[in-house]
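#struct-pred

JT: dropping the chains for the assembly here, can someone run the whole complex?
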Amino acid sequence: MTDTELVIPPSGNAPVTRVPVPADTSVGRVRSALTSRAASLVALVIGVLWTIPTAGIFIQSFRPKTEQDSAGWWHGGPFTLDFYRQLTTGLHGNNASSLLPYITNSLAIVIPAAIIPMAVAAMAAYALVWIDFKGRDWIFVAIFALQVVPLQVAAVPLLRFVVSGWHLGSTTIVPSLGLAGTVGAVWLAHACFALPLAVFLMHNFMSEIPKDILEAARIDGASHGQIFRTVMLPLLRPALAAFGIFQFLWVWNDLFVGSVMSGGSDTISPITVKINNLIGATSGAGGEVLPAAAFISIVVPLIVFLSLQRFFVRGLLAGSVKG
Amino acid sequence: MSWLHDWAHASGAFGKLSFALLVVIAFLAVIGLLLLLVDRSPKRGQEKVQAFLFLLPAFVLIVIGLLGPILTTAISSFTSAEVRKKNCIKTAVNSCLQSKGGSWTGLDNWRWAFGNSDVIHALVNTLKWTLIAPIVATLVGLAYAVVIDRIRGEAFAKALVFLPTAISFVGASVIWGLMYKQPSENAPSGLINVVLGWVGAGPINFPTNNSTTTYWLIVVMIWIQAGFATVLLSAAIKGVPTELLEAARIDGANAWQAFRKVTIPSIRPTLIVVLVTISVATLKVFDLVQAFGANQHGGDTLANLMFTTWKQGGIAVGGGGTVGDHHSATLAMIIFLLVIPFVAFQVRQMVRTRAGR
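RK: done, full complex below.
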């Protein structure tokens, strides 16, 4: 983040909030001149263009194969729920192509992958902001700078670590964690990769909290551990929510880490990996289920996004640096 | 501990989710223990010990997930792979290894990369992505943020364009696969080809026309990223000081001049953040290429080539890794080098901002 204005205030309000300017001021006039009829047209065109693709897949997902094969989705019905049944509870008693196991995998990955870095980053940020020791600024800058490490560089060695631990020659430094073949491999990767951003967000947030609160608690004899639990965590709630939603969407939508860390195993593949395989498998025939499958895969993040957009935007504004 | 192993490998939905919760609870218990330890340590004078304990979990995860791996990958890009004996069948006693690999080979892997036409092609494509996608997405986002500013239903208008941000790249691939669909005997044309047909152009032959694959993929990237640009720029535009715009109007500037000379300079920091962020994301573009299978149609990128090189490398017998491992490590390092300037810029900005506080 390069702009102090975009740092989230501890009150948890949206960043950069100004009182709306009434239309009769000069600014209003500047704007109303800009927002002429042409501008409205631009807004309409962009808005429609951006909505059509999603609307198309949504409509297509309800059309039976014969319809999909004979006319574009804009021709409309008849509609059927068969694909959705086939991909969830099963059609005619056959649930072999159900996507629910993969949704489960995604959930089992996303829960630890969001909560673990939250807790770890909150602790680290607390030390970096509130405990006075030499070199803390450098540690913070170094953690922030670690965003330079692309997932492509980190994922494969991390997979090797998870599978076989660390060895120096024939000496075992860290033994295998036993996470191989479990979703643990996937969420551990996500938890590690999220840390630079998480620490940055929490650090920003905590440095806005007035020093008096902490000093008062210190004078009362509270330890750092107590202050962290009883004073900081409740204050941090908006920042934790912002990061949590950001991380949820990021992890749910990720394909790279899921592909590498799951090693192609169906039992731990997240939904994105499954849909990606489905695209390949149905390029010849069977593609009629794809729109419904895609929609099932995006419905969870869409719900999260639409209901919690406020927090998500806050996270974006405060942390638009994730690499 | 076998029950724990079985639970970790559970195949049922309940088993998986309950194990995920168990992991979280166990983890939070460890954190709680650590905090107790902090409380036990002397309250005064020993700040350093407490800071260490607070930083310990982050430090462990960073070493496991970031520092260790980057060291391994860097070494991997400068060392050799294991060599197996030819026509040898692997048995329990005979591992077929001729060389365990891992010896320093200097720049051999890098020479391979820059002498390989596939890599060069992917590199050129990646640069095309990085030149086009961030700029166009930012421009669209800026235009949209300006035209919807303070109109009725602004929040709704913003949500329309912002929505793709919540959609995975894989989901977006299905969505745009339908848009781009090529007319054939057993399937109607996608909307893009229909519209192009009205004006006598097209069909676009996606993705089989190798010379345009990358550009049609970039369109999808722009579709995804424009909403991000809109949200950030819209917030910045609302933060432009009213007095400045008023002063410009009093000085006789028209709307366009006021926008160019006042609004743009005021939102410059945000514009740069948006550009840099989308650039970094674009440098690592993988999902779209992978889902569309674009690497088979001249649309490969570095991140995707890195993945396919690794995947096709097979599993190494010894610890030295396959040729694919070492080559993909080199490709990953190239991405790393490309990302450095952008992140260095962000770090500099952040240090400056902090100094200014």
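JT: nice. Chain B is about 70% helix and 0% strand. The mean pLDDT of chain B is 85.
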